[in-house]
Amino acid sequence: MKIGELAARTGVSIRSLRYYEQQGLLTSARNENGYREYSVLAEDQVRTIQLYLNLGLSTEQIAGFLHCVLKNKEAFCTEVFPIFRQKIAEIEAQIHQLNHIKTNLEERMQSILDERKSEEAEENK
């Protein structure tokens, strides 16, 4: 199948498909006219790539185990768990940082409200 058909079947842009190919996640054959030709398995491959991208993994991380999960069940790919653990640690760090920012904003808002109340009290004297 040609790149346009693969894009239509998967809902992934042609630009993204070319990027996946540049990253080594997807392969195609080249016709004499230079058009990319993908195997029937490419649709499943793109859907698998999308699944892992939606989990927040980078194409570099996916490249580390994609070949394995396409050949075997994910449960049999030992490369997956370290990457998942790393991603979970990143997410936990982001959550911690966001909670810290949220607390700072709440404290700042309260400080502004307290200052406003204090000024209003002074004006009412």
From TrEMBL:
Keyword Secreted: no
Tagged with keyword Transcription regulation: yes
Pfam families: MerR, MerR-DNA-bind
Xref: SMART domains: HTH_MERR
Gene Ontology molecular-function annotations: DNA binding; DNA-binding transcription factor activity
Keywords, ordered alphabetically: Coiled coil, DNA-binding, Transcription, Transcription regulation
Highest rank taxon of the organism: Bacteria
InterPro entries: DNA-bd_dom_put_sf (IPR009061), MerR-type_HTH_dom (IPR000551), MerR_fam (IPR047057), Tscrpt_reg_MerR_DNA-bd (IPR015358)
Coiled-coil regions listed: 88-122
Residue ranges annotated for the HTH merR-type domain, each copy included: 1-68
Protein name (database record): MerR family transcriptional regulator
Organism of this sequence: Paenibacillus glucanolyticus
